Amino acid sequence: MTGEVMTEFRADLHCHSTCSDGTETPEQLVTHAKEIGLSGLSITDHDCINAYHLALPVAQSLGIRLIPGVEFSSSFYGKSIHILGYNYSPESSAVQKLCEMHETRRKERNLEIVNKLRENDIIIDLEEVMEAGEHTIGRPHIAQAMVQKGYVKDINEAFKRWIGDGRPCYAKGSPVSTEETVSVIHEAGGAAVIAHPHLIKERATVKQLLTLPFDGIECYYARLLPHQEEEWVKLAQKYDLYITGGSDFHGSVKPETPLGASWVNEETFNKLVNHESS
Ligand code: AMP
Ligand code: ZN
Ligand code: FE
Ligand code: FE
């Protein structure tokens, strides 16, 4: 057989870089995507949009289609909800302001967490933690420092015993509402998507979320079984929403989830690229 090998179009729409709690730089992520045969990618860092500009020149030179992405933390009736934003304008001052707001919120909250840890004789130097990462610093970075200092055996133990939701050193901080977050993504011309809905404890919350003007649901996700994904696909179809998907790759801190473990086809990718906020 001669001729070009036909490869299926696959785009991973959910991954994290060193701009938040991933271990690969934006440039490395794009190179990695090329190596494993992906055709499209969206880097969705927590509360930070800086990866796009860093990754774009590499994506263009390697022929990877890259769309702006982000994963915003938000609060919905006291519950923590992650919202993916796609194909918004990275120059939008509304999105940039929201990222700045999160940076301030996180600084205050990280200090609160470190102070609570100190009360429990766990001494973590926040300055050191800040140096370990770029842009978005959160609980994964604090957990990593706790491992390095020998207070816990791994990141999971840090969350389970100390800093996970509702644990003794957890701090909520002052979150941004889900409504406001969706509205900022729309103002920037982007599509707002409910991230990993299966991680939302109560199904009733998902139904309530769907009363907001979301554009899509993340239906394909690493380690979800096909019949579980199908359930979310049906819900998205019922509400006439985009059916998105991605791995939620974090690099070596979460080795069980490889890049490209979940993906969308060209048709879905193009729908997001052509999305216009109504
Ligand atoms: P934060 O954004 O600072 O509230 O931290 C939440 C992030 O921590 C999540 O997005 C996950 O990436 C990570 N995380 C949450 N629980 C765990 C856990 N048990 N082990 C490792 N990472 C976790
Ligand atoms: Zn993360
Ligand atoms: Fe998430
Ligand atoms: Fe994520």
Characteristics of this structure?
alpha/beta; 41% helix; binds adenosine monophosphate; binds zinc ion; binds fe (iii) ion
Describe this structure in words.
- The chain contains 10 helices and 8 strands.
- With 278 residues, it is of the alpha/beta class.
- It has a 5-stranded mixed β-sheet with strand order 4-5-6-7-8. A 3-stranded parallel β-sheet has the order 1-2-3, with helices on one face.
- Adenosine monophosphate (AMP) binds next to helix 5 and helix 6.
Distance between the termini: 48 Å
Q: If you compute it from the alpha carbons, what radius of gyration comes out, rounded to the nearest whole angstrom?
A: 19 Å
Mean pLDDT: 95
Strand content: 5-15%
Identify low-pLDDT runs.
none
Count of beta strands: 8
SSE sequence, one letter per element: EHEHEEEHHHHHEHEHEH
Q: What characterizes the major β-sheet?
A: 5 strands, mixed
Strand order in the largest sheet: 4-5-6-7-8
Instruction: Work out the helix count.
Output: 10
Structure class: alpha/beta
Work out the helicity level: 40-55%
- Tell me which ligands are bound: adenosine monophosphate, zinc ion, fe (iii) ion
Shape: globular
